[in-house]
DNA sequence: CCTACCGATCGGTAGG
DNA sequence: CCTACCGATCGGTAGG
């Protein structure tokens, strides 16, 4: 049994990398098999289909995102602290799974139904954690009078792109990246006061 | 001649849409032909190859981005005004070419050499406009002591995602979106003062 | 995990 | 812009 599990994990690992580099559609089962030094037909002993692999990648990391954010205690902190913590855990999941994150953000649309709908539903559910933080922050005047939906989308655009430029060999640590992103989202880059 | 030009523009228009929806690799020449009510072989009278279409889409909108940003007068304005204007023209190009922008941001990696290198070089050149604005703003203390490279990347992540959520039928106008994005990037969402 | 193979589809060409 | 077609490659199966 152990061998099967390992092989499946290996397939996923190689697939994450190739799906990221070339895209899901442009990666063939033969490409995958070549990287694993087996024949394409042998892959089907471990996975049901090519899309089966994509599903596993997408929903595994979705699960990581939920597990991380659900550990945040939403009752004992201010909205700005909550937001910083949410950003930090989100960024950590991405950085710990760079290939999977890239696939998650780019290739999910190749999921077939009903998985596609399930995926979109999960994403909306996840967004609600951030919506909640923003609404709380507006209510307590911690945040300005912002458009919640627009701001949630903008926060995600800002923090999701991390997988694109983060390099483990780079000079910025994951914590520094999280801090800088939180800082930009909370305070911006200007030294001047906001004109409202 | 006019007919040929129109047909080529039609091919590009349909291709932008399909490449966006399904991705470059997952869109076949037969898909394109079907949408145009012609046969796949007939496409080759107008275009050299499938990638030829991708190249046109990517480099045309790249040109739009440059034309727009080159019209900004970099000498008579403060860094914060410059940044607002750069963001605004950038967002306008995206909103005026939603399909092409989506292809530009997602499918460029399917370009072959030497076009891929040319594309990346152009993108770096374009980023330099923003680098210049940030450096000027830091020098004049308009911006805080930020990491320039990181901030340029973060600004692009924040503003590029517009193509994903902008809907012409939505309640926010392009100008409002630009203003909100500039506001977030310059001042953030917090009402508190920045703690340095 | 392999060999052998299938039907479908791909990008593209020849020739009109 | 069409018909007719090509070699290559695709995801996947049968049977071991």
Describe the protein in words.
- 2 copies of one chain form a homodimer.
- Chain A is mostly helical and 196 residues long.
- Helix content of chain A is 70%, strand content 0%.
- In chain A, helix 4 runs antiparallel to helix 5, helix 5 runs antiparallel to helix 7 and helix 5 runs antiparallel to helix 10.
- The radius of gyration of chain A is 19 Å and the shape is elongated.
- The model of chain A has no long low-confidence stretch (mean pLDDT 94).
- Chain A binds a DNA duplex (16 and 16 nucleotides) through helix 3.
List keywords for this structure.
homodimer, mainly alpha, 196 residues, DNA-binding, 0% strand, elongated
List strands and helices in order, with pairings.
The structure is a homodimer of 196-residue chains.
Chain A: H1 2-22, H2 29-36, H3 40-43, H4 50-70, H5 79-96, H6 98-106, H7 115-139, H8 148-160, H9 162-165, H10 174-187
Chain A binds a DNA duplex (16 and 16 nucleotides) through residues 28-30, 38-42, 44-45, 49-50.
- Please tally the helical runs of chain A, counting DSSP H or I stretches of 4 or more residues: 10
- Largest interface, counted with CB-CB under 8 A? A-B, 41 and 43 residues
Summarize the biggest pleated sheet of chain A.
Answer: none
Percent helix of chain A: 55-70%
How many strands appear in the DSSP assignment of chain A? 0
* Percent of residues in β-strands of chain A: under 5%
The pLDDT mean of chain A sits at 94
Give the topology string of chain A: H per helix, E per strand. Answer: HHHHHHHHHH
Q: Termini of chain A, distance in Å?
A: 63 Å
Structural class of chain A: mainly alpha
């Amino acid at each position: 049994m152990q061998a099967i599990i390992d092989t499946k994990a290996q397939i996923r690992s190689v697939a994450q990398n190739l799906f990221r580099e070339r895209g899901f559609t442009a990666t063939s089962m033969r490409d995958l098999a070549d990287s694993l030094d087996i024949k394409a037909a042998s892959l089907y002993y471990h996975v049901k289909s090519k899309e089966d692999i994509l599903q596993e990648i997408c929903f595994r990391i979705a699960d990581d995102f939920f597990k991380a954010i659900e550990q945040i205690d939403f009752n004992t902190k201010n909205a700005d602290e909550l937001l910083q913590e949410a950003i930090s855990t989100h960024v950590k999941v991405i950085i710990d799974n760079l290939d999977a994150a890239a696939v998650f953000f780019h290739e999910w649309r190749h999921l077939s139904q009903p998985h596609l709908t399930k995926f979109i539903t999960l994403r909306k559910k996840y967004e609600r954690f951030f919506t909640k933080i923003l609404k709380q922050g507006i209510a307590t005047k911690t945040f300005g009078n912002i458009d919640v939906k627009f701001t949630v989308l903008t926060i995600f655009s800002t923090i999701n792109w991390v997988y694109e430029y983060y390099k483990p060999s780079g000079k910025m640590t994951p914590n520094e990246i999280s801090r800088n992103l939180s800082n930009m989202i909370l305070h911006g880059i200007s030294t001047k006061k906001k004109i409202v």
